[in-house]
Amino acid sequence: MIAALVLLAGCSQKAPESHAGVPVIALPVQAADGQSSGRFPGEIHARYEMPLSFRIGGQLATRNVNTGDAVKKGQPLAQLDPKDTADQLTSAKAALDAAEHRLLFATQQRDRDEAQSKQNLISQLQLEQTQDAYASALAARDQARQQLDLAQNQSRYTTLVADHDGVITSREADVGQVLAAGQQVFGYAWSGEREVYVDVPESRIDGIAVGQSATMTLPAMPGRTFAARVREISPSADPQSRTYQVKLTLDPSAAALQLGMTADVTLQAQKAAGPMVRIPATALFHQNEHPAVWVVRPADSTLELRPITVVRYGERDVMISDGLKAGERIVMQGVHTVSVGEKVAPIAPPHPEDAPQ
């Protein structure tokens, strides 16, 4: 009787439950179109910005404009001491007068000797010497004329003139200072076309190309949006910030924007070919040197380490072109705490903001 009771009690016990799996944060991946719109802070600049300087050296005698002044094309901006150039101009004029007088005498002598040579009154050698003297006098006159033109140019170069409408952005020299040729006197920005400069980090520069469109807003002008287009991408990174400078040309309606305004630029990256998915950067694992992710098999909730092809690394996410399909569930966090074939129980992130967008 006792044996029968024990047997019946053993049969009434439930079978042991199967292992439920280790909880892991895992969610299905979402399809992406390959575009990554980036927002970058920017600064308004003129399309043409350059230093202004004298073509010749000398002592700065007068300065007619200051930083922030708007100037017109042809307006005198500064003046060098003209005494030296005036003396050179006077000397060049005197040298030209002397050369023209010698040429006149050489011309008359040549004409006389040619007439006498026809009558055999002078030797052939004397005629050749007269012709040589005329050729030398002619060359000396031409040289003196060129020296005068050069002296006149040097005299004009003592006045620094604006070659385009614009604004003075900086002042680099003071009255009385002795300047070398080409030494900067003013910083200058042309009126008209405006651009916005943005600094793009290394991880985002591959998604930007010349001709790409963008939009821009300014805190100083709320409610207004300006169209922009990428004109130039720096070929090398800044050695300090390790960012690449991108210059975007603005539409003509932005010509009135003040230089130095801060801007918020939204730049749309180029669309990649083929289906793609985006995963959080925390889901990325490396199998030796190759990127991979932990995929949850739908049949038995075990883990598979699958290699993937990364197209672009972002600040918080990674764009995948091969190895994953939309809807497949992957481990989003804690990728270094799981192993191949391990049974897991997928759960959602504890904080909604941690879920992939």
Automatic annotation (TrEMBL):
Keyword Transport attributed: yes
Gene Ontology MF terms in the entry: efflux transmembrane transporter activity
Entry GO CC: efflux pump complex
Taxonomy, superkingdom: Bacteria
Sorted UniProt keywords: Coiled coil, Transport
Entry-linked Gene3D superfamilies: 2.40.30.170, 2.40.420.20, 2.40.50.100, Helix hairpin bin (1.10.287.470)
Name this polypeptide is given: Efflux RND transporter periplasmic adaptor subunit
Organism per entry: Dyella psychrodurans
